Amino acid sequence: DFLNDKSRYSYLSNNVVLRNDIDLNLLPEESKNITFIMTHDIFGNGKSIISAKPQGSKNKYFGVCIKFLGYGQNIVDTRFTGKVVNETEEVLLDDFLYYGIPVAIGNDEKNGAAFSEKTKATFTNCVFENSYRNVSICRADAEFIRCVFNNAAEANVSLRTTTGNNSTLTLKDSVVANSTVAGIVNWCNEIVPETSYCTINVENTKFY
């Protein structure tokens, strides 16, 4: 059971097939800030994984719901949602300020020896929506095909540059809409050599 495994272990050892929406707000309070480590595939069947609203002054911005750390993962037909919004509800981007980061790809820990190999993940027909940052990438090659990124209080996609790791972000046939800062933000907090610069490939993708 997805909720049981997340609250007890914070990881799953097999592929996931969703048959219904998963609302992580149903977790016990002590488990809501756990980052779920995923190293396998997700087949979403159009269903949603709704992040638990992060608790605490830092987590409400930077708390990660699911971190993908596999080497050739495929995530298909899955909706990753921060805040649930009714279709008739009028919203401002500030409404998503305290809803963290639903999806992180790659290991952003400099001394993460257990995950020294660069993460590689492909997302197809997925939606990322309604949070502070919808997707965060570091030390990873991430490809998004026919995906939608919508409603970010900061950036829809945050791409961090670190020394010794040149990540690649690829967007194909996708839509990126409604963010306060930018659709894609590439940033670093250190001086990095040119060999560590990230690569961004955009093909037939619309920004609004």
Name its key features.
single chain; 208 residues; mainly beta; 7-stranded parallel beta sheet; 5% helix
Verbal overview:
The chain is mainly beta and 208 residues long. Helix content is 5%, strand content 42%. The protein has 2 helices and 21 strands. It has helices spanning 2-8, 59-62; strands at residues 11-12, 16-17, 22-23, 36-38, 42-43, 48-50, 64-68, 71-76, 79-81, 101-105, 119-124, 127-131, 135-138, 140-145, 148-152, 155-160, 168-172, 175-179, 182-187, 199-203, 206-207. The strands form 3 sheets. A 7-stranded parallel sheet has the order 1-4-7-10-13-16-19. A 7-stranded parallel sheet has the order 2-5-8-11-14-17-20, with no helix packed on it. Strands 3-6-9-12-15-18-21 form a 7-stranded parallel sheet, with no helix packed on it. The longest helix is centred in the first third of the chain and has 7 residues, at 2-8. The chain is globular, with a radius of gyration of 16 Å.
Specify the biggest β-sheet.
7 strands, parallel
For the largest sheet, list the strands in their spatial order: 1-4-7-10-13-16-19
Strand content: 35-45%
Low-pLDDT runs: none
How much is the average pLDDT? 88
Shape: globular
Radius of gyration: 16 Å
Number of DSSP E strands: 21
Please give the alpha-carbon distance between the first and last residues: 38 Å
